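Q: A reviewer asked whether we had any structural model of the full assembly, not just the individual parts. We don't, so I'm hoping you can provide one. Inputs are below.
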Amino acid sequence: MSFRSAVITFPGSNCDRDMADALEKVSGTAPDRVWHGDAALPDGLDFIALPGGFSYGDYLRSGAMAARSPIMQAVIAAANKGVPVLGVCNGFQVLTEAGLLPGALMRNAGIRFVCREVKLKVENTQSLFTAGYNAGQEIVIPVAHHDGNYFADAETLDRLEGEGRVAFRYAESVNGSARDIAGVLNAAGNVLGMMPHPERVIEPAHGGTDGRALFESAVRGLVGA
Amino acid sequence: MKVRVFVSLKNGVLDPQGRAIHHAIEGLGIHGVQDVRAGKMIELEVDASVTDAQLEEMASKLLTNMVIENYRIERVQP
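A: Here is a predicted structure for the entire assembly that you could use as a starting point for your response.
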């Protein structure tokens, strides 16, 4: 059974090709490429990915304009029906702006753009996206962002922690994120947003392969094999 | 009619940009500034038919991220 996925491209997305490449290499099937102005998604999707980049030039707030683009209404409807959605970097910002994930991504506490490999701790290994990792496993994934400083009020943070919805945590100081949160899940567990870029480390030529298990987990969980 | 929407960070939300601006002000040799918070002002030119409720909707659904920001709407009298 083939894995049907879609990668959404907004004006200013720049990691959409890497995301599509990662999905194709791991699943064996090339994803559909969907433009932000489209009103509908292809039928029968197993997986939707929102890539990194600078959608709409980060105007107003990172992800704010993309979250209100025509295709996002379809993505929100699909997510609410249980279709898995992965948002990486700008994709994470879009998911919070669209209300699919709690909190907000603010300017890095150190002001600077951070572009380097970082150590992450896998906090939840029960989700569709993280089942292929071991509990407490430390992995190395690159980040490249200016607005990755995760913020939510204390009550929301407590709820996220209590419900096991912190998927990844930085194992080092990166951007000032509340409780070092690098990636969060929605309540149903079918939406994951994360600042680090797993699609950039899926084969040895990339200099690391720690991101591959995320895509393998999703493919295995959704279509078996 | 001109309308201004002032967007500011909520109290308690860290403002690294404000902190950097504060630091730069001190670099000018001017002392006595206690704190700096950076926000933004969005100016709209609207027809008289645009209602307060519509302005509230624009401000709360798009211009402001209510998780981290507050807004204030000001109709500018001509």
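A: Points you may want to mention in the reply: The CA atoms of residues 1 and 46 of chain B lie 5 Å apart. The longest strand of chain B covers residues 2-9.
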